Amino acid sequence: MTYSVSEAFSMHSTRPPSRSRRTIVTDTQTPAPPMLTTLDKGLRVLEALSEADTSSVTLTTLSRSLGMHRTTLFRILGTLRARGYVSRDRDTDRYRLGARVLTLASAVLDDLNVRQVAMPPLQALNRETRELVYLTVLDHGEVITVEHLDSDQPLTLRARIGARRPLHCTAAGKALVACLPEEDVEAVLNSELTAHTPRTITLPDVLRQQLNEVRQRGFAWDDEEYIDGVRCVAAPVFDIELRAIGAVSLAAPTIRTPWERLWQLGAEVHLTAREISRRLGASLERLDRP
Fold this sequence. Notes:
Layout: E1 9-11, H1 37-51, E2 57-58, H2 59-66, H3 70-82, E3 86-89, E4 94-97, H4 100-110, H5 114-129, E5 132-139, E6 142-149, E7 155-157, E8 164-165, H6 171-177, H7 182-189, H8 204-217, E9 220-223, E10 230-238, E11 244-253, H9 259-279, H10 284-287
Antiparallel strand pairs: 1-7, 2-4, 3-4, 5-6, 5-11, 6-8, 9-10, 10-11
């Protein structure tokens, strides 16, 4: 049984891997190294300034929020000011992050490759589910595959880097559209919603309701809407500015994905997307805010 599209069934024999429980590796799973107290306090000051509700804060406010003695805090701020990481407004006596912070941020962002960052969590998801896992991005009104890990099962699906798919009938497309500004969402809903299978959603109101549900549960699904016999789930990946820059997707034959398993896979994909977002610098706390 084969299909002419890029994600088609193919038959092959492989030795199944051991079914070890999936673990997403995070920095918190390794023993914490000894900390230099003064350095830790300095980093806490920088973090507090970056997370402040206002662009600048007073010494008193900063001292209170950190639970740090004013004299100690004043000395730390003096050191950070001397290095350019903090600046002080002489007129208001308020502190803010200095321009030197941008140098560090720029060095990190220049070296931040979403495919490289996403690979370890994608590999963990692929090992646990033994299904096709891939990473997509939004490009000119379509989703395009930029990375994939194939399934090792006898009846499997294939993907290829560069494959393009529509937004309205794929899990990845719906996951990304759900994160767009309202005017962009309406543009998609008002476009031609071409039917690719008998299950493709072609009514704007029905698709709008699905997008609302995607926002509530955190992942989207595609119930044989693009390819007959294939179900998919996907969740958006966010960058440090909380922009949806891609989606983690998983596809499997319907014979292996009853609704109960599809929901389970959706939850796993959602967790994987959150871990990738965290590694890209997204604040999970801010993502969880209503």
